[in-house]
Amino acid sequence: MTSPLRDLLDHRLIVVTGKGGTGKTAVSCLLAEAARRAGKRVLIAETSATESIVTRFESAPKPVGYAGRELRPGLFAVHVDPHEALADYVRLQTGLGVVTDRILHSETFQQLLEAAPGWRELIVLGKVWHLEQKQDARGRPLYDLIVVDAPATGHGLTFLDVPRVVQQAVRAGPLARHASWVEAMVHDRERTLLLPVTLPEELPVLETCELIARARGEVDIAVDRVVVNRMPSRLASRALACLDRLPPSLSPESLPPVPAMRAMLEHESRREAIAVAWRRSVSARCGLPVVDLPSLPRGFEPDGDWAAFADVILRPAVWPGEPGAAAATATPGGADASGVDAA
Ligand SMILES: Nc1ncnc2c1ncn2[C@@H]1O[C@H](COP(=O)(O)OP(=O)(O)O)[C@@H](O)[C@H]1O
Ligand SMILES: [Mg+2]
Fold first, then answer.
1. Pocket lining: 26 vs ligand 1, CB cutoff 6 Å
2. What's the gap in Å between 319 CA and the centre of ligand 1?
3. C-alpha dihedral over 183, 126, 205, 325, to 10 degrees?
4. What domain range includes position 138?
5. Is residue 296 within 6 Å of ligand 1 at its C-beta?
6. Pocket test for ligand 1, best of 22, 293, 300, 329 (most atoms within 8 A of CB)
7. Is the whole model's pTM more than 0.90, yes or no?
8. 326 lies in a domain?
9. Residue ranges of the alpha helices (H) in 194-326?
10. Rounded distance from Cα 18 to ligand 1 centre (Å)
11. 75-79 and 69-72: which strand pairing?
């Protein structure tokens, strides 16, 4: 047995990361929705080139842009576009308005930027830091929790490592100061958590293991669990066991023939077993417990019911193989359709 982990909602900043398509945006939305339902004021900071958060909340989505807006009571979203963040930063540093825009849009400056690796990451993280520091009129943090929907892995960690690299290269001046604030935020284990998302499949699992090794090594950011998205329910393997208990003489007219049912269920239960094995593998290789997310039948359509599943992300992380370590295939009503992890 291990001691329980801190509640996700006790953090100030959660950086959701993983390979493209694993469900980072989905997890960011679930987490923000769960936080909102728990009475927190939460902000999702989207860092990809195109906005997709808003499309999960609104059927006729209008961009939230760099200014951001409230999508549901208590849930805000902002699109941290690096060019706008840079203009914002330079404007703050120089106190120049229109001139800043003219310089930033000049061809020379654009060429300089393209040749300067890491500026995007630093500026985007700097904006996140700025948002984390924001206070309301009574001096309390404006947001209780900020969820960063990070770029796909690789970029995801480069993104977090840039402040350290910049600080090594530039030792004084505003840029160094700025990088040191951002770096302190990344390393603060009380405030900040990296939340990796994987699928229970070979390539995402291997990439997640690499990501976590780097997160613990060079980046030095807290990571305490892995989200395993699209974990299949164990329905097929349990149905197969039921099939075995049917009397051989039974052949109900309305059902498909038993051998056909067996073939279908065996196929599906092999798929389930593979997912269970990769889930166990990512946990064992990384030495981390897992939180399972089921595949939602209607996905993340804005008018679907995904928000009803939000609290699944807050479930205690489990060690596969331990008693009670069942797949999270809960229904919003609370009934748990999972079987015991037998793999
Ligand atoms: N648990 C889930 N159940 C159903 N659909 C999902 C689930 N997780 C992700 N999806 C869908 O899979 C696709 C990729 O997920 P997304 O969150 O956009 O991945 P990422 O942000 O990592 O690229 C999207 O269409 C999303 O709606
Ligand atoms: Mg995404």
1. yes
2. 24
3. 80
4. 8-232+289-314
5. yes
6. 300
7. no
8. no
9. 202-214, 235-245, 258-286
10. 12
11. antiparallel
Per-residue tokens: 10: 């006790």
Number of compact structural domains in the chain: 1
Please report which ligand is nearest the Cα atom of 197.
1
Check pocket membership of 230 for ligand 1, CB cut-off 6 A.
Answer: yes
**Residue 321 resides in a domain:** no
Task: Locate 103 and state its tokens.
Answer: 């310089």
Report which protein residue has its CA nearest ligand 1's atom 14: 21
Q: What is the pLDDT of residues 183-211, one digit of tens each?
A: 899 999 999 999 999 999 999 999 999 99
Q: What is the pLDDT of residues 237-261, one digit of tens each?
A: 888 888 778 776 766 666 777 788 8
Q: How many whole angstroms separate alpha carbon 187 and alpha carbon 183?
A: 6
Classify residue 256: in a domain, yes or no.
Answer: no
Write the CATH number for 211: 3.40.50.300
Which candidate, 7, 8, 29, 26, places its Cα nearest to that of 18? Answer: 26
Å from CA of 23 to ligand 2 middle: 7
